[in-house]
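User: Can you write out an input/output pair for a complex, sequences first and structure second?

Assistant: Here is one pair. Inputs:
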Amino acid sequence: MKRALSLYAAAIYLFLHLPLAVLAVFSFNSSRFTVWEGFSPRWYQAVFRDPHLAEAALNSLIIAFTATAAGTVIGTLCAYGLWKQKTGLLPNFIKSTLYLSLVTPEIVMGVSLLAFYQWVFRFLDVQLGMHTVVLAHVMFSIAYVVVVALARLRTLDPSLEEAALDLGATEWVAFRKVTLPQLMPGVAAAALLAFTISIDDYVITSLVAGVDSETLPMVIYAMARRGGSPLVNAVSSLIAVILGVMIVASERLRRSS
Amino acid sequence: MRLCLLPAAVLILLLFVAPLVIVCAYSLLSRGAYGGVGLPWSAESYTRLFDPLYASIFVRSFVVAAISTALCLLLGFPLALFISRSGRRKNLYLALVILPFWTSFLVRTYAWMFLLRDTGLVNTLLLSLGIIREPLPLLYNYGAVIVGLVYGYLPFMVLPIYATIERIDRSVIEAAADLGAKPWTILTQIVVPLCAPGIAAGSVLVFIPSLGAYLTPDLLGGGKTILVGNLIQNQFTTARDWPFGSAVSLLLMALVMVLLLLIARRNQEGLL
C-alpha cells in the first residue's frame, strides 16, 4: 500500500508542477507554434521590447509597492493591537471582518468596491484610477499581513515588553526597541506576501481600475482571453519565477527565529 | 494602544463594510436609466433570482463546486497521508504543495490554456503521434473549468487534512495494529473518522472559492460556462444591471457565510 500511495502522490505532484514547467520550457521555443524547434530567447527579448507590457508592469510595480507599504504598516500595527488587547468590541470587530474579507469571493469584493467608489464619486470630483486600485489592494492585503504578523507575535514572550515598561520605557519606545525588532522577520514575510498578492491580482483590479491604471495581469488576461501567444508564455514564466522566489523568501523569513 | 487598531478599523469600515452596505442598498433599488441605480425602492432583483434562468446558474455553480471539491478530496486526502508519513522530507513535500498556490493564480490558469487549447501541447502531441486526426475540444468547457479549480484549490484541501492527521495519537494506530487490524481497516476505521474535522474544513475551503470563482470559468470556460461569478461580473459590466448584480452578490455571500458557520464550531482556533 505504501508503494501505491507514493506513486499516487508522485502523480499529484506532477499534476501540480508539470503545467508551469511545460509552459516555462516552451517559452524558450524558437517556433511560434507548440512544436519544439530549438532553444531561443526571442520571446523574452520581445517581452522586454514591448512598450505596452512595460507600461503595465510599471503600473503594477507602483501599485504593489504603495499598497504593500501602507498595508504592511497598518496590518502590523493592527496585529500588535490584537496581540495586546485580545478581547473587546474593536478587536472582535476587526477579527471577524478580516476573517470575512478572507473568504469573500473576489468578484463580490470587486463589485462592492466598484459600487462604493461610484457612490462616493457622486460627491467628489474623482474618477477610477491608480488611487482606487491602491486602496482596494491595501484593503485585501491587510488580512494576510495581520495573519502572518500575529502568528509571529504569538511566538514572542510578552514579559520582555513588560520588563521594558517596568524599567521606565514609554509604550512607543518599548514597542519600537523591544517588540518590533523581534517581529521584523514576520513583518518582512508579511510584506513579501502582500506584494505577491497585489502584483498578481486581476479580478478586483480590473473592476476598480481606470483608463490610466492598466496593470500587468490585466494585459496578460486580455492576451490569454484571445487564446494566448508565445509572448504570454514568456511573460507568464517570468512572473511565476519572480513570485516563486519571493514566496520562498517569505517562507524562510516566517520560519526563521 | 487602542490607536494601533484604529487605522485598520477605519480602513475596514470604509473599504469593506461600507461597500457591502452599499451593495445591500443597491440590491433594493431599481436600475438607472443610464446604468447605475435609481429610485424607487424595489424587491424585484430578489424575485428575479427565482427565474429559472438564474436559478439554474446557481445550481450549475453548486454542481461544479461540488465536483471540484470531491476531486480535491480524492487527490488531497492520499496526498496529506503521504506527506504525514514521509519523515524528514515532510516540510519539503508540504512546501511543494503550497508553492504553486502562491505563484500567480493567473499564470497557473493560463498554463492550462497552453496545455488544453486546440493548438496546445496535448492536442499537438496526440496529433503528431497519430492517435487523433482532429484536435480534441479540451478547452472552453466545464471539464476544463473543473480541472482549473481542482488545480487552483487543492492546497486548501491538503493543509487542513494534513494538520488533523498529524494530531492523531500514534498509539491508537499501534493498538489497532497490535490487535490485528489490517492497514486498510486502520485507514478506513480509524484514520478517516479522526480526520473528519480536517476533511470538513478542507471541503468548505475548496467549495467556497469554487462557488464564487470568476477567473477560472472565464478563462478556461471561454465565456461558454456561465457560473455565479461570471453572472455578477456581467451584471456590473456588460448588462449594467447593478441592482440585480448586487442581489446575486449578496446571495453568494449568504451561501458562503452559511457554509462557514457549518465548520465554525469544529474549527475554534482559527488564524486570527
